[in-house]
């Protein structure tokens, strides 16, 4: 529903994309199902949806543990694989993988929304109207985390890459020391 109303086709022309599709329950869990369809057509709504797309077709074999990819929306996603076989994209678990869509690319269904804080202002406005009263705040930021704003630019789509099937390369991984855990 949200994808159809957002008119993101100009940003994802062609068939060389991987789309991490949140299940309907993911939208309900955050109260996004109560937002108007126009919100997903807004710049913030389009940005949220584009954070679920990666340029190039990814397959299950490409989703290696600790691989990092950049989304079309400019976000970063990190793949995590457990020994039990669970695969996650950031904190969202993949619940169905490698669904092929002829005119789009590869889809992976996930159990939560990536970067939901993009629509935090809309949820806050709804909370002030008591529509979502009693729900916990959306993803509070821990006190030891510094939020660094990132500009989002939407570029005009290019037809030059539309016909070529590409597999994106992972971004370099940076390991960070966490003093909570002893090595």
From TrEMBL:
<dbReference type="GO" id="GO:0050839">
    <property type="term" value="F:cell adhesion molecule binding"/>
</dbReference>
<dbReference type="GO" id="GO:0031012">
    <property type="term" value="C:extracellular matrix"/>
</dbReference>
<dbReference type="InterPro" id="IPR000782">
    <property type="entry name" value="FAS1_domain"/>
</dbReference>
<dbReference type="Pfam" id="PF02469">
    <property type="entry name" value="Fasciclin"/>
</dbReference>
<dbReference type="GO" id="GO:0007155">
    <property type="term" value="P:cell adhesion"/>
</dbReference>
<dbReference type="InterPro" id="IPR036378">
    <property type="entry name" value="FAS1_dom_sf"/>
</dbReference>
<dbReference type="GO" id="GO:0030198">
    <property type="term" value="P:extracellular matrix organization"/>
</dbReference>
<feature type="domain" description="FAS1">
    <location>
        <begin position="1"/>
        <end position="114"/>
    </location>
</feature>
<dbReference type="GO" id="GO:0005615">
    <property type="term" value="C:extracellular space"/>
</dbReference>
<protein>
    <recommendedName>
        <fullName>FAS1 domain-containing protein</fullName>
    </recommendedName>
</protein>
<dbReference type="InterPro" id="IPR050904">
    <property type="entry name" value="Adhesion/Biosynth-related"/>
</dbReference>
